[in-house]
């Protein structure tokens, strides 16, 4: 059931095909280099790209910009207490700021950190402390056609192997990312969270939940986990799941429903004190932490809206609508559909291309060329040297696009697939020094000799 109507609008238009061709070439076939005015439907990310509600805009005007003791900070702290169940909060400029504050406090050289799957900034912050990030996804997580309710779960068997190998002393932190962004936005069951809590107790580790999409995760739990059949409220599920964690890191750009912001939250007064010290160094005084008072105020409202049943239902329905329209025209997608995005299976869509021809990135470029649609590659181009499916993520900004936009995306994908065999693939033209983040800045060019997988 549709849950919103528009009050403020932003004009968009589809640039001519000729302009799109030129823009793509000038961007080095990397859509991160495109100007947003050259994009028609922008599904690059759901991070900070959503629409705020009228209540959030109203809160923004009343933001308290005091350096210390801001009223808007109190509003945020009370929202974090009510919605997520944590007593203490340290605001930060965005999620990675929270990661720096928390992981910089908890980790040191030589530590090893299991996580269901590290999001890229999480991996980078763990590594930045001299610790080793280890992904422990549930078996089958990277199989685009395996139907299972909680493909985001953390594999405790894998995490135990890690501890057996390096010793519990070297594993001071276990992380669970809900939903599992880097595994196609798949949800994590509350049962899995309980088991990770017990595991962390066994090895005397701090259990951190990366809670960026806590509300979407709760909506999936309500649909799929028998203990939480439809009559349990979203906010109850959120509090139950998060109650097992010692601390959370949060990006307000996701389920905080704002354009920038984040925080660390915990019930542990000692951890809170240590995080505050590091926050002063990197983010700002602990009652603003790199955010304007108005943004704290808007995030306080956003957190409460995120657990509203009509919001989350509309959210998941919107992603499902895009998925269904794509499936109706025969586009292969990762199943089941995750929380914040639809993932196209480029390996299947462009099966004539070998991984070295970057089928995912080639599909991203064709979607832009054909219909001004911007997605992002998460395959051989983004993750060099790993065994991953060739996925293209179409992330859905919150409360922003409607069915007509998604119809355009589906028509675009259908047209691309009709002439799929003519897509020649790409090769690298220039690459930055850090391979982990090359997809943001590397440039490519069309392959001169067509590649085939056989
Ligand atoms: C976005 C995200 C982050 C980082 O948050 P930013 O606000 O982009 O810095 C961390 N973890 C997950 C799972 C995310 O999706």
Automatic annotation (TrEMBL):
Belongs to the beta-eliminating lyase family. Keywords: Lyase, Pyridoxal phosphate. It is an enzyme of class 4 (lyase). The lineage of its organism: Archaea, Methanobacteriati, Methanobacteriota, Stenosarchaea group, Halobacteria. Residues 42-411 form the Aromatic amino acid beta-eliminating lyase/threonine aldolase domain. It comes from Natrarchaeobaculum sulfurireducens. InterPro entries: ArAA_b-elim_lyase/Thr_aldolase (IPR001597), Beta-eliminating_lyase (IPR011166), PyrdxlP-dep_Trfase (IPR015424), PyrdxlP-dep_Trfase_major (IPR015421), PyrdxlP-dep_Trfase_small (IPR015422). NCBIfam families: PRK13238.1. This is Tryptophanase.
